[in-house]
Amino acid sequence: MATAKKAAQPKSTAAKASAKPAAAPKTSAKASAKAAPAAAKRTPNAAFMKPMTPSAELAAIVGAKPLPRTEVTKKVWEYIKKNKLQDATNKRMINADAKLKAVLKKPQVSMFEMTKIISSHLS
């Protein structure tokens, strides 16, 4: 009796596979719109790449020669990390030492406020 039940059930996987239509890859307008700009290479903004002269206070940290804003920010972060001036509990806050306090005018600032203050020291 057990063999009669087994014979009645088809075990053909080919029949099951052909019953389901092949899934077409889904593409949406958003996905294709995102893919197109990714292929094009970004060009840097000329305003950020223009060499700016740092003030005397800022020159003590980054050097006196004219640098683009991006490089000034990188050098200030190198100075902060080298001297361990980032707050231990809240990493967004920067604790100023003597050189940095001359630029920032405060004992502690947020990293976002820091970039704003530094831009005022560039001409």
TrEMBL record:
<dbReference type="Pfam" id="PF02201">
    <property type="entry name" value="SWIB"/>
</dbReference>
<dbReference type="InterPro" id="IPR003121">
    <property type="entry name" value="SWIB_MDM2_domain"/>
</dbReference>
<feature type="domain" description="DM2">
    <location>
        <begin position="47"/>
        <end position="123"/>
    </location>
</feature>
<feature type="region of interest" description="Disordered">
    <location>
        <begin position="1"/>
        <end position="48"/>
    </location>
</feature>
<dbReference type="InterPro" id="IPR036885">
    <property type="entry name" value="SWIB_MDM2_dom_sf"/>
</dbReference>
<feature type="compositionally biased region" description="Low complexity">
    <location>
        <begin position="1"/>
        <end position="47"/>
    </location>
</feature>
<protein>
    <submittedName>
        <fullName>SWIB/MDM2 domain protein</fullName>
    </submittedName>
</protein>
<dbReference type="InterPro" id="IPR019835">
    <property type="entry name" value="SWIB_domain"/>
</dbReference>
